[in-house]
From TrEMBL, chain A:
Chain ranges passing through the membrane: 34-56, 109-134, 146-166, 192-215, 255-275, 305-323
Record's protein name: ABC transporter permease
Compartment(s) of residence: Cell membrane
Membrane topology designation: Multi-pass membrane protein
Superkingdom of the organism of origin: Bacteria
Domain ABC transmembrane type-1: 109-322
Family label: Belongs to the binding-protein-dependent transport system permease family.
Species this chain originates from: Streptomyces malaysiense
Region of interest (Disordered), residue spans: 1-23
Pfam families cross-referenced by the UniProt entry: BPD_transp_1
GO cellular component, one term: plasma membrane
TrEMBL record, chain B:
Name the UniProt record assigns to this protein: ABC transporter permease
Gene Ontology MF annotations: ABC-type maltose transporter activity
Alphabetical list of Pfam families matching this protein: BPD_transp_1 (PF00528)
Family: Belongs to the binding-protein-dependent transport system permease family. MalFG subfamily.
Topology of the protein relative to the lipid bilayer: Multi-pass membrane protein
Keyword Magnesium: no
PANTHER family: MALTOSE TRANSPORT SYSTEM PERMEASE-RELATED, MALTOSE_MALTODEXTRIN TRANSPORT SYSTEM PERMEASE PROTEIN MALG
Gene Ontology CC: plasma membrane
Sequence intervals crossing the membrane: 32-57, 99-120, 132-151, 163-182, 220-243, 267-286
Superkingdom in the source lineage: Bacteria
Biased composition (Low complexity): 10-24
Localization per record: Cell membrane
GO annotation, biological process: maltodextrin transmembrane transport
Amino acid sequence: MTVAIDRATGKSRGDRVPRPGLGQRMKNSLQKYWYAYAMIAPVVIVLAVLVGYPLVRGFYITLTDANSLNSARTIGVNHIAATYKFVGLDNYKNILFGPLSYDRFWSHVIWTIVWTVACVTLHYTFGLGLALMLNQKLRGRTVYRVLLVLPWAVPTFVTVFSWRIMLADSGAINQILHALHLPQPQWLEDTFWQRFAAIMVNTWCGVPFMMLSLLGGLQSIDTTLYEAAKMDGANSWQRFRHVTLPGLRSVSSTVVLLGVIWTFNQFAIIFLLFGPTSAPDAQILVTWAYYLGFGQQPRDFAQSAAYGVLLLSIVTVFTSFYFRWLKRNDQLAV
Amino acid sequence: MSTTTLEKQAGAPAPAVKPAGRARQPGERGPLGTVLLHAGLMAASMIAVAPVAWLVYLSLGPDKNDYLHPGAIAGKMSFANYGYVLRHTEFFSWFKSTMIVALGTTVVGVLLAATTGYAVSRMRFPGHKQLMWILLLTQAFPIAVLIVPMYQIFSDLGLIDSYWALILVNCTTAVPYSAWLLKGYFDTIPIEIDEAGRVDGLTPFGTFFRLILPLARPGLAVAAFYNFITAVAEVAFATTFMLDDSKYTFSVGLQTFVSEHDAEWNYMAATAVLIAIPVSLFFYLVQKNLVTGLTSGGTKG
């Protein structure tokens, strides 16, 4: 048994041995790497069962007209067999090009993009600003840090309810606005303000993670770089632009990717802020897909699953482009 | 750690102070800079704390409409809501469900993922890259992809309304995440240790179980904490799969106080505080490791 434990690619390049047949190659590779395969087996099996199988089944559902009325179900002691039928790609056609496609799909796509871009930009900007402030030598820095992390420490499903109380018609925020003689929007009823409120709450929830990650990044920048820059007469803006930002690049590329994925998939905030059935126009694609599948009667499983497949394609395409882009700029060592 | 940073960022948007006259030593700041820095951080901290503090305050008001007249609460503060929640709601059943689901997810996630993390950290085998890519992508799965087929599969198996359903669903994210994070941690353990083990005649499995695993305890702990916290905070699947109100987890139970017909905000607030205190204490204990785990797992790929 060979030991391929080092990180090199295994073989040295250049030695051209005639390529053996497929069966032989598989046998060889199994012999050589059997312990690696044995070690990854648990995860591969679990993922195949828990992710692979549902994925295939979900894709099949999108090719049918399944809903809660024709799916297999048990009422009391009677078991009713499934009666849904195969409809090919009709669900996708309907979603993407059907008569209601703008109201039901494209408007949500646009809002989801706005939501993701706005939230991640705000997370990053505030996160970086606060990280820079916390990185200063300052009395009470630990206290600030503990307080600023609070939105991340308390579970989202708790804090969203707190925001819901504050944003209610005569809740705390409108009472403050009233006292200041400012207009008091209907945060949870009017579409524009619903969206505004959703972005606001998500920003509040997401900043601490960015702040802590970027703070970690700031602290790993070599201080001699700043001294050298100072020697060369760089002013503070130039030092920020040419030392701090490049130093944060690898942390930034990771947290921005995570931020985009989390925000795009953010379910809890919108679902809990507006309740399961209200605010159809403020739903992003994920919550809207959930609404189609579970928030209405009859539950439209096929459409919901089709939204799921579309969402997954968007995430996959985005992630692979992002990685390609990072690799081209040499910011990632995958 | 750097203390010699930029006085420029003092008051993030407005350039705080320009060096006046004399050249300042690194790390020095004008008094105005310090004031602006404190003001900025204080304002941000206020915003960060206010919603939570407000929840705590409202939980002390005994009437369900007290949130509309917060001024009145100060005069009649009481812990009545807490008493009610603990005695007359399903709080303890929710606590039990949450614990079962979260601990189950944690144990399964970490146990299964450990060997994989090691394999992808140390060995290059055909399919390595694809596996890494799948592990990463699974974490990016929108819940909408899996929720419908999972619902149907679990209905077929009669697992709707059982803890197993939730544990298995949570594992779809917990397992790949733990593997990814543990890979990052194993990368930091010097490879010479493996080599020493190999030279002394251990098999690859022996090296892993006898040498690396004991060294990786902090990494395992971080993965466990993160799985635990994510499982506690999971909303979508718990809401959909749990039907019996004594089996609700906290994230579902909390929603029951607010329906279309009635909103018992005072009890909701009290329950929320009772949940938030242990979870956030737990979170503070591990938060530093959490951040390094999350970002280093990604950057070091």
